[in-house]
Amino acid sequence: VKDFGIEKTLKNLGIKEENKGTSVGGKYFASGKVIESISPVDGKLIAKVKTSGESDYDKVIETAQKAFQEFRLIPAPKRGEIVRQLGLKLREYKDDLGKLVSYEMGKSLQEGLGEVQEMIDICDFAVGLSRQLQGYTMHSERPGHRMYEQYHPLGVVGIITAFNFPVAVWSWNTALAWICGNVTIWKPSEKTPLCAIACQNIMMEVLKENNLPEGISSVLVSDHEIGQKLVDDKRVALVSFTGSTRVGRMVSSKVAERFGKSILELGGNNAIIITKEADIDMSIIGAVFGAVGTAGQRCTSTRRLIIHESVYNEVKTRLTKAYGQLKIGNPLDENNHVGPLIDTDAVNQYEEAIKKCKKEGGKFVVEGGVLTGKDYESGCYVKPCVAEVKNSYEIVQHETFAPILYLIKYKTLEEAIAIQNDVPQGLSSAIMTQNLREAELFLSHAGSDCGIANVNIGTSGAEIGGAFGGEKETGGGRESGSDAWKYYMRRQTNTINYTAQLPLAQGIKFDL
Ligand code: UN1
């Protein structure tokens, strides 16, 4: 493997041989076990992390609570200024952070840099938003009364993220949480701890330069037991969880039990409908990028293509040809299209899914398989594959985080929409068509049931300006743009009487 300057990148980001996984406001400590971050790119140890233990946890929460008392009093636009400075730092560190994302997680360098760009974009978005945390005013039914609503910070926000977007999902949450006046505690995936430590190091520079209280931003690199503590802890007002539907179901009920708030970003099973009036060139590019980008490990990855019978064979042939041209290998090498899966567990799940698919009757038009030999020593590289299936197969109903694409044939658009919706998940969806009627039906209330529905774009690569999230087993949460900020605040309705009388609402008389 060529040297892609990783040593220098690690140094620039403050990653040492052994790091401490608990961090509050520039103080690093940790009493838990040591974990190793192994790169799926070359199977090499990148660095070790001493994780957070039981005794660290309370300290972090208490420091965060204390910081909140102070931070909530800073005016929102001034909090926006802090986020603006984070955005500037991220621009400085973009190349290094993008490279670390690529090396620790395995996505292509382009996608690693793209992920950091999403962080920069959300910072910019949040800065503007910090002057627009607006509530309604309304007319009271009582004379001489004024009514309005305002939004207040929640307190401590817990952020639990997955390996596949090891830096961006933190920033979507923190940038909004901070301008809203909250403090944050981040529990990153154990598979990508160094990305989290690098982000924290960058944020610490900002906090230090502004002389802000420790505890505005904390990180807990730990096993799921500490994650569980965060979920169960009454002192954590909001838990934002990104991960599997299985774990999300548990998080959701645990947080609800204590009347906490949660944002859930769970599995997807995203489809592109390719109609008879689709631009086929565009559809092929959209489908291939959607299916093999990030090696099929985005929540928004394209899992299913629902293709009109009249163009089915053409799409199948051209897709097979396109897959034949894919270069699989080191994601830091910009000549490659597809990098490795995150680890060998993920490879096992990929193989298991292919087996299940075949057993249920799936016919592979592009065969899968695990790559071995030179440059594939990590054992995490797999071949993107394509199978003809029925939507009803159990494996097709299930999200496999790997580059496996399913082809399904349809006759009428109504049938295609029904197939698209007939899965437990509801994150992203797309239609490829040049026909207005088809596009509008797909977007209508009789159309896609997903949180994201696109026309002539693939299922992945959402911009931060729109609210991101999905329905059904995807969990219903929304992050990033539009009015997703409201999740991070509590709403208060205020009625003010500026007269010398006390008229009651609903015309009730109560004379003493
Ligand atoms: C995820 O996979 O968890 O829309 C998020 C996209 C990215 C975010 C994906 N902007 O593909």
Automatic annotation (TrEMBL):
Q: Active-site positions, per UniProt?
A: E265
Which ranges of the sequence are coiled-coil? none
Q: Where are the transmembrane segments?
A: none
Aldehyde dehydrogenase domain segment(s): 33-493
Q: Is Cytoplasm there in the keyword field? A: no
Gene3D superfamilies membership: Aldehyde Dehydrogenase, Chain A, domain 1, Aldehyde Dehydrogenase, Chain A, domain 2
EC number assigned by the record: 1.2.1.3
Q: Which CDD domains match?
A: ALDH_F7_AASADH (cd07130)
The terms under GO molecular function for this entry are: aldehyde dehydrogenase (NAD+) activity
Top EC category: oxidoreductase
Q: Which PANTHER family match?
A: ALPHA-AMINOADIPIC SEMIALDEHYDE DEHYDROGENASE
| Subunit field text | Homotetramer.
The entry sums up its family as follows:
Belongs to the aldehyde dehydrogenase family.
Its recorded name reads: aldehyde dehydrogenase (NAD(+))
Species whose genome carries this gene: Chryseobacterium culicis
